[in-house]
Each structure stands twice: as C-alpha cells, then as structure tokens.
C-alpha cells in the first residue's frame, strides 16, 4: 500500500518537474505574459464566473460562506505561510509560536486604532483629545510591523542559541504566553471581552465606509492580495541575496556555515525578525477586516495549522507553502460537511507527508536533495540511530 | 484585580501549605517528565506526542471506572482494588499508545535518518490526531454507547472520587491530606523503581549502553530496536501512573488535557536536565512548587505563564538543566 502511494507520488513529482522544466524553457516574454495573466486572474478571482469553474466558489454550496471572504482568509494565510517559510523553510528554525506574532500584529491595530481600546482612551484623557480620536490606520501599519519585529527580536535573542527542538518548545510557550497575557491584562486589552471597532483604511467601521466595509469583502481581498504579491517579490529578492544564501547555509549545516564566516546567530535573528514582521502584518490585515478581536482567536491549534501549511506545502519553496496555505484554508470552507474533521486531517496530513515525503507536496529542489543525502547516509550505516 | 496583583503576604503566611500543594502537583509533572527524559536520553529527540500518551491514560482510567460503575467514595477495600486496576489499565493503555507512536511515526523516520525537525513535526501531527480521535472520532463512534465518556465530545469529564480528601495530620499551620501524601509517595516510589531498573538490571544496562553510544552498543550485541521499544513503554507506563494520580488528585479529564500538562512536564524535564532521570524528579517537584508560589504571588490565571517563563530562563542560563544531561553517563 505504502509502495503504491510512493509510486503515485513519484509520477506526480515527475509530472511537476517536467512542467517546471517546460516553464523554464519558455522564452522570457512568454513567461512574463503568463505571469501577468496569472496575476490578473488572481485579482479577478472574487468575481469568478467562468462556467465550469464556478463550483470552486464556496458560496456555490448551500449555506456556504462568502466567497470573497474565503479568498481573503486564503490570502492572509498565504502571507503567514510566506513569513513562516522564511523562519522554517529558509533558516530551518521550527517556530511553533508564530501565532504570537500574528496576535501582536492584530493587537497593535486594535490597541492603537480602535476608539474602544483602553490605550487610545488613556491617550485621549492624557492629551485632551476628542473621544473620536484614534491613531490612523496607515500609521498602525508601521506600529504593527515594528511591534512584531521587536517581539521577534525579544523572543529570538535569548532562545536562538538553543538547539532546534528546544527552540520549538520555547516558541510554543511564547505563543501561549501572548494569548494568556492578552486574556489577563484586562486594563490594556480588555481581556476576554476583546476589542471592537478596529479601523480599516477608511477608519473604524461605519455606514459611510464605501469601500472597505464589513459586508463587501472584495476590496479587502484585493488589498490582501496586493500585499501578498508585494511581499512575495520582497522575500524572493531576499532569498537570492547574501542574507538568503546565509540562511540556507545555516539550515544545511550550522557549524560549517560558522566556519566559513557566516555568523549564525545574527542571520537566525534576522530570519526570526523578518518572519515575525510578516506574521504581524498578516495579523494586522486580519484584525482590520474583522474589526473585532479577542484572545480566543489566537489559540495553539491555529499556530500548528500555520506550521502544517508550510511543511505540507513544501518548506523552503514559496510556491509550495502558498499552495499549502490555500489548500488548508480553502478545503474546509468548500467541503463544509467534512469541516469538523479538519484538525484530524491536518494532523494526518502532517504525519503522512513527513513519513512519505518530508520535503512537502511541492518541494524545493535543494531541500529534496538534502533529505536524499541523509537517507543515503542511513543506508551506508545501518547501525546508526 | 487591583491591589492584589502582587500578593506576598498570603505566600508567607501559608508557605508550608503551598509547598505541599506544589510538591503533589510537581510529582505528577515528574512522572510525565520521565517519558520525555527517557526518549531524549536514548534517541536525542523530544517526543512531542508524549502528552497525548498521558491523555490516553486518563481516559483509560475514566473508562475503567465507568465500566466498573464506580461510585464516589467506595469502601476502602474496593477503593484499593479500583486503584490497582486503574494503575494496570492506565499503564497498559499509555504504554501501548507510546509503543504505537514509536511504530507508526518514529521507526520509518529513523530508517531514513531524517533530521530532528522532521521527527518533531511528525510528533506534532500525531498529537493533533490523538487529540481529535478522543474529541471527535470516538464521540461520533461511541457517543451513544458510552454517553458519560464520549457523549458530547471535547467537554471536561469528571472522574469519580475514589478516596475522599481528608486531612491526615497538621504541621504548624500546614494541613497534609491523604491524597497529596499518596500522590507524592507513590510518584517517588515509581521513580525509585525506575531508577533502579535503569541502573541495576540487564535491560537497564542495555538502555544506558545505547544512550551512550548506539554503534558500539550494537556491536556488543545490544538489540537497539528492543531498547527503543523498552524506553517508549517505560515512559508510557510512567505516564499511565501519572494519569491515575491525576485522576485521584484533580478528578477530571478532557481530550485537550495533554497540551499544557505536557509542556509543563517537558519544562520539568529540561529543568532537571533532560536525559537525566533523577533530574526529572527534581525538576518536576521544583516546577510544581514554583508554580504554586507564583500563582499565589500573582493571580492564579497567570499560572501557565509561570512555567513557560521558567523554561525560557532555565534554557537561557543553564540549558543542560540542574543536574545536566546524562542517561548514558550515569555510572555507565
């Protein structure tokens, strides 16, 4: 049975590789043109009306959820996956507390942008500002980015000297700490009540919001997909830079990298901070769209879902993790009857993928070779544990 | 909320009481921590799914007591019988689960010499699967058959009180009750037995040999696969014992009970020096006490944060724990 699955999988990857080879063999103008077409398709997605493809829409099933809303969620998760991919896939640091950064980004806009937040109310009282005053949304972007970046450094500074698996547990604890702090610090975060009236680009939710309202989600999706495309571009540049190559070197062999003059701690901290900032940005978009957050939204399961997106999709490969994120966000929404089983399915998927294909569904070539090497070593020395 | 955010007065006036409370909590952490420490000591990997081994144990105890129709406060003779049966069933269930985890998840990965990160991710997936089996699959399958256990899924399930809690003796203003005493004494006894087993018997020597140097041990005729199975089973049995004690002391379970408890037990193992059996006991008891003190000083809803903060601090300043890493080096 397992051999059969392996066989099918091999055929699938061969097909994938040949598609990849053909793609690279195309003349440049054709590649550019198809990429532009793909981007246009992404922007067109919420309006999807192509016969035969409309069954993709989540509102085509009875009682299905808002299609644009699901697309928005997918886009936010893709942003999360891209950020987490920098940490797990490129630098090889297993971060199980990524939800903490997501929460920090969300709380940043909530605490500074909402008129209901104790922080804003305190500022109003202190500086005699009108009760409608709050920090503008555009400024909250920077606050969210800076706060999550700093929290990444604060968490990374003491813990990044640890071995990989210790780091995983510590970060898991960090995610929980953020949630418990958000729940318990009632004077700042309003505790379990949560914070409402979180602003969007047009200010707090109100009937005069024409574009970024609560009902029509399409503009939110377009905003999120724009951010995603921007970040994909930025991370791609980073990946091919000196920093990106250092990450790969550290992931593959930290000691060898250190010997060759790459200071692992510095680059690991960079990966952590950049990943954290991306996670914070995703949380920021998420909170702005829903205009309400409370601590229960940032639980451990979601954090594990994030990790699942990256490892199932194919850690180290941006296309892979994006596909993983879309699948894991979209499938439970489209197939509502099995939505109850989604955590079970994520768990099973993680186990199966790790045992059968540790490089993920759409692997990064380099990582696949790395794992093959280790397997070959195991063949040579069967006594090794 | 205001004013009593930091409350030292209560801590000092009842310090004995808090210490006993903490010790009886820490003893349970210590028993679970053994599972982490044994596996880490031999395989150098953190068995993330160990918390679910404990969870299965608590369900086994609850299932047994439900099947036997145990009522609250049975007569002493019956109570002892129920406890012994509970220990056996929990040990079998947890040991079996641990063994199954090893077979399903770790063995295929070991064959491929996978990097440690992959073991960890597999274990996370497996622990999610186990949690969901007890919260979703079993309730759907057995909900009508055993409504008291799986009727509504994912809810907190109460366990019958086997031994009523009463104060045995008082030292100063510290009341020591029977359950606390049983928990601490039996946990320490189990640890001593395990320590003896590892340090004095043939099987234990095999474990220590593999922990120290797997290749040489294999050359000397130690069957590595058997040693690995043995440590998983031993860890599972200890988790089963912890599950029984948990049932006596706290009297409830839930499908998601393992997560926080597992993290704390792991913290205990790291505190004492992961890979070191005696360290696990020390770490567990210490963590239990710190947690109860901390919960008194701050508010009890900060309790879980305290364990994590302790973990971070320990890893920062002494990553090898109080006693250092040593399963193989302990008088090998």
Automatic annotation (TrEMBL), chain A:
Q: Which sequence ranges are marked TM in the entry?
A: 32-55, 67-89, 96-115, 135-157, 220-238, 269-292, 304-331, 343-362
What's a single GO MF annotation on this record?
Answer: branched-chain amino acid transmembrane transporter activity
Intracellular or extracellular location(s) = Cell membrane
Main location group: membrane
Sorted UniProt keywords: Cell membrane, Membrane, Transmembrane, Transmembrane helix
Report the membrane topology from the UniProt record.
Multi-pass membrane protein
Pfam family for this entry, one: BPD_transp_2
Q: Which GO terms describe its cellular component?
A: plasma membrane
Q: What is this protein called?
A: Branched-chain amino acid ABC transporter permease
């Amino acid at each position: 049975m397992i051999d059969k699955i392996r066989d099918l999988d091999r055929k699938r990857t061969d097909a994938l590789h040949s598609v990849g080879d053909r793609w690279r063999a195309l003349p440049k103008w054709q590649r550019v043109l198809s990429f532009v077409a793909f981007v246009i398709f992404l922007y067109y997605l919420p309006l999807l009306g192509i016969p035969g493809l409309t069954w993709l829409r989540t509102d085509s099933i009875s009682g299905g959820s808002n299609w644009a809303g699901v697309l928005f969620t997918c886009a936010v998760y893709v942003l999360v996956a891209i950020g987490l991919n920098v940490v797990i896939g490129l630098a090889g640091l297993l971060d199980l507390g990524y939800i903490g950064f997501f929460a920090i980004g969300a709380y940043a806009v909530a605490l500074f942008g909402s008129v209901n937040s104790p922080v804003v109310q305190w500022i109003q009282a202190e500086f005699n500002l009108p009760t409608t005053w709050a920090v503008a949304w555009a400024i909250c972007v920077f606050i969210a980015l800076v706060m999550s970046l700093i929290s990444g450094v604060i968490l990374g500074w003491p813990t990044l000297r640890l071995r990989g698996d210790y780091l995983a547990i510590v970060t898991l604890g960090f995610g929980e700490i953020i949630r418990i702090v958000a729940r318990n610090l009632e004077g700042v975060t309003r505790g379990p009540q949560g914070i409402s009236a979180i602003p969007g680009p047009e200010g707090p939710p109100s009937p005069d919001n024409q574009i970024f309202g609560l009902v029509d989600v399409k503009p939110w999706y377009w905003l999120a997909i724009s951010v995603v495309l921007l970040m994909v571009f930025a991370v791609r540049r980073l990946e091919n830079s000196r920093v990106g190559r250092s990450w790969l070197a550290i992931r593959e062999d930290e000691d060898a990298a250190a010997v060759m003059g790459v200071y692992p701690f510095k680059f690991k901290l960079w990966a952590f901070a950049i990943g954290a900032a991306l996670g914070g940005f995703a949380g920021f978009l998420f909170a702005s769209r829903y205009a309400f957050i409370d601590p229960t939204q940032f639980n451990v399961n979601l954090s594990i879902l994030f990790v699942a997106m990256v490892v199932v999709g194919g850690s180290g490969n941006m296309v892979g993790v994006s596909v993983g994120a879309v699948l894991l966000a979209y499938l439970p929404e489209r197939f509502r009857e099995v939505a109850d089983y989604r955590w079970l399915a994520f768990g099973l998927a993680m186990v199966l993928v790790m045992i059968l294909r540790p490089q993920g569904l759409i692997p990064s070539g380099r990582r696949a070779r790395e794992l093959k090497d280790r397997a070959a070593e195991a063949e040579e020395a069967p006594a090794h544990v | 909320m205001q004013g009593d955010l930091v409350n030292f007065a209560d801590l000092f006036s009842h310090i004995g009481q808090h210490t006993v409370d903490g010790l009886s909590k820490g003893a349970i952490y210590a028993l679970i921590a053994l599972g982490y420490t044994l596996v880490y000591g031999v395989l150098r990997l953190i068995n993330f799914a160990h918390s679910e081994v404990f969870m299965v144990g608590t369900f086994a105890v609850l299932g047994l007591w439900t099947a036997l129709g145990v009522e609250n406060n049975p007569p002493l003779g019956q109570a002892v019988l129920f406890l012994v049966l509970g220990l056996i069933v929990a040990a079998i269930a947890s040991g079996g689960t641990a063994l199954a985890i090893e077979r399903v998840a770790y063995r295929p990965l070991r064959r491929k010499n996978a990097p440690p990160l992959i073991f960890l991710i597999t274990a996370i997936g497996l622990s999610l699967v186990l949690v969901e089996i007890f919260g979703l699959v079993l309730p759907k399958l057995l909900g009508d058959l055993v409504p008291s256990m799986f009727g509504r899924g994912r809810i907190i399930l109460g366990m019958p009180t086997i031994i009523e809690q009463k104060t045995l003796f008082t030292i100063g203003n510290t009341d020591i009750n029977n359950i606390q005493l049983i928990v601490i004494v039996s946990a320490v006894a189990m640890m001593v037995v395990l320590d003896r087993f590892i340090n004095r018997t043939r099987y234990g020597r095999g474990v220590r040999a593999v922990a120290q140097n797997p290749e040489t041990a294999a050359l000397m005729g130690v069957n590595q696969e058997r040693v690995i199975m043995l440590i998983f089973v031993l860890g599972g049995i200890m988790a089963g014992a912890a599950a029984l004690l948990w049932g006596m002391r706290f009297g409830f379970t839930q499908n998601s009970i393992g997560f926080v408890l597992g993290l704390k037990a792991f913290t205990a193992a790291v505190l004492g020096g992961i890979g070191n059996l005696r360290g696990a006991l020390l770490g567990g008891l210490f963590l239990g006490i710190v947690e109860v003190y901390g919960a008194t000083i701050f508010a009890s809803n900060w309790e879980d944060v305290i364990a994590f903060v302790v973990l971070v601090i320990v890893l920062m300043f002494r990553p090898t724990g109080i006693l250092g890493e040593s399963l193989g080096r302990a008088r090998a």
